[in-house]
Amino acid sequence: MENRLRTLRRAKGLTQVRLAQKANVCRSVIARCETGKTSLSARNLKKIAAALDASMDEILEGGQTDGAAS
């Protein structure tokens, strides 16, 4: 999950600080997740997904949820 979160965040042009502000979580939550030191709680995952305009599945598995067949 850590690399997917970092990739999504950077693709949106957000710093860890800005994403944390948008998601209303501590920057350390983002940093620890991106470095693999901790996993996101379901609550924080939902907040971060909303802030990134992404699905939780995209963060967890890197999947696209547009219904297109792979």
Distance between the termini: 20 Å
Q: Compute the number of helices.
A: 5
Number of domains: 1
Mean pLDDT figure: 88
Radius of gyration: 11 Å
Order of helices and strands: HHHHH
Task: Give the CATH level 1 class.
Answer: Mainly Alpha
- Strand percentage lies at under 5%
Uncertain parts: 65-70
Could you give the count of β-strands? 0
CATH architecture: Orthogonal Bundle
Shape: globular
CATH topology category name: 434 Repressor (Amino-terminal Domain)
Structural class: mainly alpha
Helicity level, as a percent range? 55-70%
CATH superfamily grouping = lambda repressor-like DNA-binding domains
Biggest sheet: strands, sense, closure?
Answer: none
What's the short version?
The protein is 61% helix and 0% strand. With 70 residues, it is mainly α. It has one domain: Orthogonal Bundle (434 Repressor (Amino-terminal Domain)), CATH 1.10.260.
What does this structure look like?
The protein is mostly helical and 70 residues long. It has one domain (2-58): 434 Repressor (Amino-terminal Domain). It has helices at 2-11, 16-23, 27-34, 42-52, 56-61. The protein is globular. It starts with a helix and ends in a 9-residue tail after the last helix. Mean pLDDT is 88; it is low at 65-70.
Write the topology of this structure.
Elements: H1 2-11, H2 16-23, H3 27-34, H4 42-52, H5 56-61
Helix pairs in contact: 2-3, 2-4
